[in-house]
Amino acid sequence: MKPLDLERVRPVVIGLFRMVVGMLFACHGVATLFGVLGGPEGGGPGPAAFAWPGWWASAIELVGGILVVLGLGTRLAALACSGSMAYAYFDVHQRNALLPIQNHGEPAAMFCWAFLLIAVLGAGAFSLEGLLGRFTSGTRPITGLPQEKGAGEPVPVSADN
Predict the structure, then answer these.
(1) What's the number of CA atoms in the CB half-sphere (13 Å) around residue 17?
(2) Contacts of 78 (CB under 8 A, 6+ apart)
(3) Main-chain phi, psi angles of 118, to 5 degrees
(4) Which of 1, 9, 115, 158 lies 20 to 30 angstroms, CA to CA, from 102?
(5) What CA dihedral angle connects 110, 54, 41 and 72, to 10 degrees?
(6) pLDDT tens-place string over residues 79-112
(7) Percent of the chain scored above 90 by pLDDT?
(8) Where are the beta strands (DSSP E) in 48-143?
(9) Distance CA 65, CA 23 (A)
(10) pTM value?
């Protein structure tokens, strides 16, 4: 049995990670903005429209999470999501205590670092960026498991592909 070549599955794992993190983040935005899925903080009304920072943070969570799930403008959307969670941690949570376990800022810290990772690594597999790039650049990006020979290189688009 051949050992698993982790580089071959890297784009797939990054793509799945991106979609799960984006979906969880978008759920936070939906819960806060629309009072569904348990509502904000497990119940109660959401922030007033355009109220700083609650409404804007929720809008970034919803729109940014959806963009990250779809893999569209991934790096920029992930950077905005990471920044919003850094702001949430330092402005909301850290004033209560220094450590995330003390100030209940674990989700903000985890989302911040997860989105920073996505911003650095890119969309991975299963992204609209990869799909649109296939139709606009004349080459098909390798977004899944690479082929045996020439792995990692763009494959020219032809009528056969």
Answers:
(1) 19
(2) 18, 64, 68, 115, 116, 118, 119
(3) -65, -40
(4) 115
(5) -50
(6) 999 999 999 999 989 899 989 999 999 999 999 9
(7) 53
(8) 139-140
(9) 6
(10) 0.77
